Amino acid sequence: MKHTYLVALSSALLLFLGVASPPAHAAPTACSGGGSFTVTGTSINSTLNCEGEAVIPAAVTIIGPSAFEFAEFLGRVTFESGSSLTGIRSQAFAGTGITSITIPAGVTTIGAQAFADSSALTSVTFRGMTAPSAVSEDAFTRIGANAKLFLEDGATGFGSVGDTWKGLLIATGGTIIAPAPDPAPVSYSPAPLPPIAAKAPVITKSFSLDTPVLAKQQKKELRTLIAEVGAGGSFEVVAGAALSPGVTKRQAKALALAKARSIKKYLVLRGVKKKNVSLKTKVLRLGESPDTQILGSKPNSS
């Protein structure tokens, strides 16, 4: 009993002196289609297994870097009424399957590639009356074609209907409206279409990578790929990890992501622009070979 009292007293003293900090409150929040994400204090940290819909609690102020990155089965994100959110950090929703999102009014910062590679994302609604003060130019890069931005009536700092803001086409103020009916067909003779430029060939390298650590031979192959494609080309890394006894789907996906990031880091180190490297992961069945592929496309010269 005396020993327990002394330990408690010592801990309290360290806390009072600022040497120790109380453990942050962490609470898992279930996603509608399976998996969960963790709210620590007022922020959301990295998660890999959120599927379906993620409902962000009102107390959350920050969605951390790569919080939902590569959660490819995450299709919808909603925010509780009275949201306190102020910031969406870099790559927070990169590579997800969300099709639309309504950003709370209090958000003032959106980080680099926060919604990058979300090919299904075609609708972004912002509830603030003024544009966020700090939004990365590539926050919405490589998302759905002709993605639209919807604003509240009277919102300022974004531009006018028909303009683009951070790559999003400003469609209208206020709530999203139904499109007008198509006009009656008009007969006309279409002008001949210009010839379609041939797509640059894709060069592929494939090798087995059991850990995120690149071997000398694998680095040599990556250098060869860069030489063939050119440092100005675009690269897609598709890293896989196989399920095995004692390894969960989440753990396998985390391993695949670590491999993909290791390759991206080396490509950037060798002169490839970070924004030109996209990452994908796949979880394979027990016994399947977890090969990793890197697809390189030369710059379009047309």
Q: Mind explaining what this structure looks like?
A:
By secondary structure, the protein is α/β, with parallel strands linked by helices. The protein has 2 domains: 25-173; 202-297, 2-Layer Sandwich (60s Ribosomal Protein L30, Chain: A), CATH 3.30.1330. Helix content is 17%, strand content 27%. It is built from 3 helices and 18 strands. It has helices at 2-17, 216-229, 249-269; strands at 26-30, 36-40, 43-44, 52-56, 62-63, 74-79, 87-88, 100-103, 109-110, 123-126, 134-135, 148-151, 164-165, 168-173, 202-208, 234-242, 277-284, 291-297. It has a 7-stranded mixed sheet with strand order 1-2-3-5-7-9-11, with no helix packed on it. A 5-stranded mixed sheet has the order 8-10-12-14-13, with no helix packed on it. The radius of gyration is 23 Å and the shape is globular. It starts with a helix and ends in a 5-residue tail after the last strand. Mean pLDDT is 82; it is low at 1-24 and 174-180.
Give the biggest sheet: 7 strands, mixed
Strand order of the largest sheet: 1-2-3-5-7-9-11
What percent strand?
25-35%
**Based on DSSP secondary structure assignment, what is the total number of beta strands?**
18
Mean pLDDT: 82
- Work out the radius of gyration: 23 Å
What gap, in angstroms, lies between the N and C termini? 80 Å
User: What sort of overall outline do the alpha carbons produce when their principal axes are compared?
Assistant: globular
Please count the helical segments. 3
Number of domains: 2
